[in-house]
Amino acid sequence: MPRPPDPAKRRDLLDRVREYMIRNGLADLSLRPLARSLGTSDRMLLYYFGSKERMVAEALALDERRPLLRARILLGPTDSPRNPAWLRRFMEETWRQLSAPDLRAALPLYLEVMTVSVLHPDRYGPFMRDVLTEWRGLLVSVFRDLGMAEARARTEADLLVDAFFGLLIAPLADGGWDRSDAAVHALLDRLEPGWHDT
Asked: Is the pTM of the predicted complex or chain greater than 0.70?
């Protein structure tokens, strides 16, 4: 009977695959050069992950959960009342964490995954849908806590998720992070007054 994969080694490989993808992207990702870079073999990667697509999706999911978990932690117990002003502070802190320099290195990879998921929905489309669904679900629950009806909560969540993703992608082309920061604050200036009318 074959020995089951070592979970610690699998996690270590996954972390290193993620770092490799951040440095090299997805366009020319091939198992043999990747395996050589990691000091292993393509057969070993297939043993641990089953397929290249599954390995990539797991490495991306591992990375994605870090900012999502940070946002969930911000939603934990708080002494502040959950009102529109609190929601604005939560969104400002979420933006600060999403656009932090330590996460920016991974953003080109996400842009590439988004593009591939549009051109080849069967490859990374499910991953991108899961990412967007999780972020939207998180914000829908926040808006419901403010007393919004379900349909409106979903619309407000869609607006924030889509705007934040767009504002994360735009400065990759020209480094305009200050402009994106200003745009986020301007967006929240316009949206917050409407959150009082629940």
From this structure: yes
CB neighbourhood size of 90 (10 A): 18
Residues with pLDDT less than 70, the chain:
1-4, 63-65, 78-80, 198
The full set of domain ranges for the chain reads: 52-195
Q: Which residue type, as a one-letter code, is found at position 90?
A: F
What's the pLDDT score for residue 101?
A: 83
Beta-carbon-side half-sphere exposure of residue 49 (alpha carbons within 13 Å) = 25
Give the residue carrying structure tokens 């920016």: 104
Predicted confidence (pLDDT) per residue in 58-82, tens digit: 888 876 657 777 787 777 776 667 8
Pick the CATH number of 52-195 from 1.10.357, 1.10.1740, 1.10.860, 3.40.50: 1.10.357
CA geometry: angle at 127 spanning 122 and 133, to 5°? 120
Q: Convert the pLDDT of each residue in 158-171 to its tens digit.
A: 999 999 989 988 89
